[in-house]
Amino acid sequence: MKKVNTNPIDIMLLACEILDLDFNKYGDNLEIIEDTLIDELNLDFDTFQEIVSRLLPLIDVGENPLNKIKFKGFSKIENGTGFWLIKTVI
Predict the structure, then answer these.
(1) Strands (E), 1-90
(2) What is the distance between the alpha carbons of residues 71 and 82, in angstroms, rounded to a whole number?
(3) Suppose 16 and one of 23, 63, 71, 73 were both cysteines; which one would form an S-S bond, judging by CB atoms 3.0 to 4.6 Å apart?
(4) pLDDT digits 0-9 by tens, 38-81
(5) How far is 76 from 50, CA to CA, in rounded Å?
(6) Chain centroid to CA 57: how far?
(7) How far apart are CA 3 and CA 63, in angstroms?
(8) For 66, which DSSP code?
(9) Alpha-carbon span 87 to 23, nearest angstrom
(10) Which pLDDT belongs to residue 86?
(11) Has this prediction a pTM greater than 0.70?
């Protein structure tokens, strides 16, 4: 499984975004962020960072060449062919 190195500050920013926490208020307080991650998602900070580092290589944006609808989601390439694992219209 591919994964990328992530900056803990970036992970804290992402956690604040998905937890609806004000990064300007809590961004320097890992304890509050981690407690909220545990309460809302049952994940500690290190586990959250590991999941993000494994998902980042799968993020993709694409466009259907026939109707020009754009998508974002998670994709992978096998045997030279790319396919969506999950996507949403943008």
Answers:
(1) 59-63, 70-78, 81-89
(2) 14
(3) 23
(4) 999 999 999 999 999 999 999 999 999 999 999 999 999 899 89
(5) 19
(6) 10
(7) 25
(8) T
(9) 28
(10) 96
(11) yes
Residues in the chain, total: 90
Give the span between the Cα atoms of 35 and 21, in whole angstroms: 12
Burial of 15 (0-12, 13-18, 19+ CB in 10 A): buried
Cα–Cα dist 30/69, whole Å? 39
List for the chain the helix, strand, coil content (%; round to 5): 45, 25, 30
| Cα three-residue angle 32-23-54, rounded to 5 degrees | 80
pLDDT of residue 75: 95
